[in-house]
Specification:
The chain is mainly beta and about 550 residues long. The chain is built from three helices and 37 strands.
Length: about 550
């Protein structure tokens, strides 16, 4: 099955790692840098929900993070030198939550929509800090170990224990005091549309003051005010937050001479006459070149919440964003020393002895989920489905990544190895609704099956369509626990959130198959694609998907 060059063996892989770490990836399906000094929005056409950004001490390095909810690794760290070209450089959380045994165990199974909500990233006293609210458990903070956001981060600290806290941002004042602003989740607190500020200890690890309501959007156009970011500029305390709802809302800016208010406010970014809906919730950054920019999201339903970049004009004393308060589609790039075009990685040859940074699991990682191999492949073992299972909603070992564009094709070459009947594996587009193209063992043969489920989150059963019967391409000759194998190429194509499957024996001639699937977002996230591998027999040895490569093309 594996026809890769022998240079992909372990010794050569180890030698290649430094080169892999510095290689520049340019997407074939979405690159915002237009090459003429301008850029197009979104600057990241992928689901980096609730983005926040800060600038490093050099003034040339920008770091972004975003909500990751239950997925691991969590808290993605993206780096840019110009706010337009971004790459994934790491994650702040390997698991949810290291150092907190009860919570760590809780997230061993998929907790869709829970976990890490709307983080903020800040540089302070030589380290990078990220704060977030987990609406079920409290306010958490994690910081770097040695000031390198692409490196190791310390274990998370629970700053405030409790429920309902979301969307937290710290502000260290000139006198060394630290304040925290946050929103509230109505689903847990049973109230919302208010922002509160309290004082933290100077090291930002615990609350030392009581919360004060500094803004109330109830009963006004500013309902659903949330996602606040805290800043100080020219003696004014600034809170920037979205209001009006996720799909159709707008961005507020508010200012006060005291962190505890009262705050006056204005709308500084709204859809207006553009086709960019709900432009809000993000982070403001002031560059060393004297420019101001705002990174924020736009909700694109099945594609998730994609990242836009808008200029900020302070000439009126208020941060008017975009072009006179409306988001831009194309604009002049920010001033920067760098000119490198780079995008978040999508395709993967599975050549490295570590998992690619584009991938996340559906729960805390267990080594039995899957591991890289020395053969230039990635192996994903079959998950043991619970008795009475109806769909794949709670499968933790799906290896998934974000959709990268409105239109794209994903092709993968894999071998499925089965030890027993009912084991299956293949390609999936996962959301509240999902559809998968898998090979499933039935006796001494395999079936090519489309598995589709609508309202998977509500426990609805999946439907199955058998598309073909396939002879194994290889069989083990040993008498001891032999397996049978299926080598196959699988493909999914997306256009306008509609998806179609195809398959091939040789990777050259593809046969369209199955029904068209209307993609659906996940719980607070966009749909994600990748690999699924599962089985129904609780006692047999696991089978596995051996992914040779996966490539994202137009």
């Amino acid at each position: 099955m594996n026809n890769k060059p022998t240079t992909r063996k372990w010794l050569c892989l180890a030698a290649m790692l430094p080169l892999m770490a510095t290689a520049q990836y340019k997407s074939q399906v979405w690159s915002p840098d237009l090459g003429n000094g301008t850029y197009k929005n979104p600057v990241i056409n992928a689901d980096y929900s609730d983005p926040d950004v800060c600038v490093g001490p050099s003034g040339e390095d920008y770091y972004m993070t975003a909500s990751s909810f239950q997925c691991t690794p969590g808290l993605p760290i993206l780096h840019s030198r110009d706010l337009v070209n971004w790459e994934i450089v790491g994650y702040a959380l390997k698991q949810l939550y290291t150092g907190h045994p009860d919570l760590l165990k809780h997230f061993d199974t998929p907790q869709h929509g829970n976990g890490v909500w709307a983080p903020s990233i800040r540089y302070h006293a030589g380290e990078y800090y990220i704060y977030w609210g987990d609406p079920d458990h409290g306010v958490f903070m994690v910081k770097t170990r040695g000031g390198n956001p692409a490196g190791e981060w310390e274990a998370p600290v629970c700053v405030i224990e409790g429920t309902g806290y979301i969307d937290t941002t710290p502000l260290w004042d000139e006198d060394g005091r630290c304040y925290l602003v946050n929103g509230w989740a109505n689903s847990r607190a049973k109230f919302a549309s208010v922002l509160t500020v309290r004082e933290l200890s100077a090291d930002g690890t615990r609350a030392i003051g009581q919360p004060v309501i500094v803004f109330d959007g109830n009963g006004t156009e500013n309902r659903t005010c949330e996602g606040p970011k805290f800043y100080k500029r020219d003696g004014w305390y600034w809170i920037m937050c979205p209001a009006g709802g996720v799909p159709t809302g707008f961005q507020l800016a508010m200012r006060s001479k005291s962190p505890y208010g009262p705050y006056e406010h204005k709308i500084v970014l709204a859809q207006g006459k553009t086709d960019i809906n709900g432009p809000h919730q993000g982070g403001w950054v002031h560059t060393k070149y004297g420019e101001d920019w705002f990174l924020h999201f736009q909700d694109k339903e099945a594609y998730g919440r994609v990242v836009h970049l808008n200029p900020v004009d302070w000439s009126t004393g208020w941060p008017v964003m975009g072009k006179k308060g409306e988001p831009v589609a194309v604009y002049q790039k920010p001033k920067a020393a760098a000119a490198t075009v780079v995008n978040p990685v999508e395709s993967d040859e599975f050549n490295a002895p570590v998992i690619g940074k584009q991938w996340q699991w559906q729960a805390n990682y267990d080594e039995k989920f899957g591991v890289p191999t020395a053969f230039g492949t990635f192996r994903i073992y079959t998950h043991k489905l619970d008795q009475g299972w109806k769909n794949l909603w709670l499968v933790p070992n799906m290896l998934l990544q974000k959709t990268p564009a409105d239109r794209f094709t994903v092709t993968t070459k894999l071998r499925f190895t089965s030890k027993a009947d009912g084991q299956f594996g293949g390609l999936i587009m996962m959301g509240l609704d999902y559809s998968a193209l898998v090979v499933r063992r039935m006796g001494k043969e395999f079936q090519l099956v489309q598995m589709t489920c609508k309202a998977a989150d509500k426990g609805k059963p999946q439907t199955e369509q058998v598309l073909a019967t396939l002879k194994p391409t290889a069989e083990d000759k040993t008498e001891y626990k032999p397996g049978i194998h299926e080598d196959i190429h699988l493909r999914l194509s997306v256009d306008n959130s509609k998806m179609h499957f195809a398959w091939s024996r040789d990777g050259k001639k593809f046969q369209p198959c199955g029904d068209e699937f209307q993609m659906k977002e996940g719980k607070w996230i966009g749909a994600k694609f990748g690999f699924v591998s599962a089985e129904t027999d609780p006692k047999c040895d696991r089978g596995w998907v051996e992914a040779d490569w996966i490539r994202v093309t137009p």
